[in-house]
Amino acid sequence: MYKPIVVNKRKTWSLITVFLIFIIGLGWLFSRVYPEYSFILPVAVIFSVISSWISYFYSDKIVLAISRAKEIKKQDNPYLYRMVENLCITSGLPAPRVYIIDDTAMNAFATGRDPKHATVAFTKGIIDRLENEELEGVVAHELSHIKNYDTRLQTIVVTLVGVVVLMSDFFLRMTWFGHRRRDSDRGGGQLQAIFMILALILAILAPLAAILIQLAISRKREFLADAEGALLTRYPDGLARALEKISHDAEPLEVANKATAHLYFANPLKGGVVSKLFSTHPPIEERVRALRGMTR
């Protein structure tokens, strides 16, 4: 069970390193084309950091409100509450607040900036339709997200994506309105034209590349949470069976949207091939295969 954890942690940080190098390279290239606009990168970073600061401290409240989740106490659902408490004791985590979403679709999510300010939410569908070991696997998966600070990591990644999108948009707008640097007196016209073409190509493709890197990081964190959830319960097959049941559930989660989809246990948005390509979650078949591989 430990091998998938080590591999997915390494891949996650490798992707983040590539992301940072990509942003620095993009900023450097834009600065070569428009040295008079050297403020592009700092402005993009500051704007994204402010947005992320708001998201960091208030995203849990926003997500819970969007999802129409209601907080419960132990007397409201002793079965679920005790399951969360017992797994928290096993993992050494403080008990998070527990919420229920009044929806028959099967799903769950965790949010909060750190384990002390964490929340887990479950749909009525997933509580009612999963067996004890299966629901326990889902709870362990969500607690693993909290333990690994995945919601904080996603905030950082969203910040990086925001920087790339802002820089690309700014550059394209300048190009569209015909702003050009005149460098004829320095004899660098041909080199400048090469930089211009490269920067224009990157400006168009950068947002797509940034989003794909974000999705790759999100998918690796799902594999990591699966592995650590299985390690917590010592029963990978329970989580695998839960995923299989959810894969056969064609009902979309009504309260979910593209902005919150990455938080959920399984992709709450049902769609075709294009939707799966840009999904924040790896295919359920791959997750089940990885879990079943741990028992061999």
Explain briefly what this protein structure is:
Helices cover 66% and strands 6% of the residues. By secondary structure, it is α+β, with helices and mostly antiparallel strands.
Characterize the structure shown:
This protein starts with a helix and ends with a helix. Helix 1 runs parallel beside helix 6 (150-176). The chain is elongated. The chain is of the alpha+beta class. It has one domain. It has ten helices and four strands. Strands 1-2-4-3 form a four-stranded mixed beta sheet, sandwiched between helices. 66% of the residues lie in helices and 6% in strands.
How are the secondary structure elements laid out?
Layout: H1 2-33, H2 40-66, E1 69-72, H3 78-91, E2 97-101, E3 108-111, E4 119-123, H4 124-129, H5 132-147, H6 150-176, H7 189-233, H8 236-247, H9 273-277, H10 284-294
Parallel strand pairs: 2-4
Antiparallel strand pairs: 1-2, 3-4
Helix pairs in contact: 1-6, 1-7, 2-6, 3-5, 5-7, 5-8, 6-7, 7-8, 7-10, 8-10
